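residues and backbone:
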Amino acid sequence: MAKAIEAEFDPSAQVAFVPVEEGTYPAHITELTTKEVNTRAGQAIIVNMSYTLADEAAEVEQPLYEMDGYKHRLDVNGRKIPILKDGEQEYILGTHLPKKKFYDNGFFVFTTTESANKNSRYFKLLESLGIELEENDRGIKKLVLVEDEDVIGLPVYVKLETHSYVTRDTKDLPPHEQETRTVLKAKEVTLWEGGEKISLEELEDDVPF
């Protein structure tokens, strides 16, 4: 027989799920990994970072859309249905945003001269993060590979966009049988002017265990 305990549940007190919407949010870089790979364009290094939304993200307003559980309701054109009040889009403060973590799709650094022209996205990242680069007399920038001390804890703005992918279990199936899912990824990263850099100790204090 089940044992009685001092615990209750009030279904009427449940709060509707509010997802994180696409947009630009204040965050801190909290992880960095690098990996060497061979590509059709030559040898490269993939730089991946993760970003944890800052406490200040709670002050960001997000548009509200109709939800079906954990998914957006869509109209006949496949677009999210906005929640309106007096004909105007409703918004909510992002109190659910701080401490949420997101990842980027990686920044490729091509290490061969023939593929140097493919490094524009990584160069833009370095430039956006305020990392200074040497320049030779021909105006060519000498790229550097970022390390933990360069970026961990750095205050940034991340632009989150929806990224679609085919699940690992179905990627080898015919296209009509594949299962597609979506996830928010950090598409653009820029330095958060006025934001405070946080230390590794502060990052470790935020770990919830």
In short: The two ends are 33 Å apart (CA to CA). The chain is about 10% helix and 40% strand.
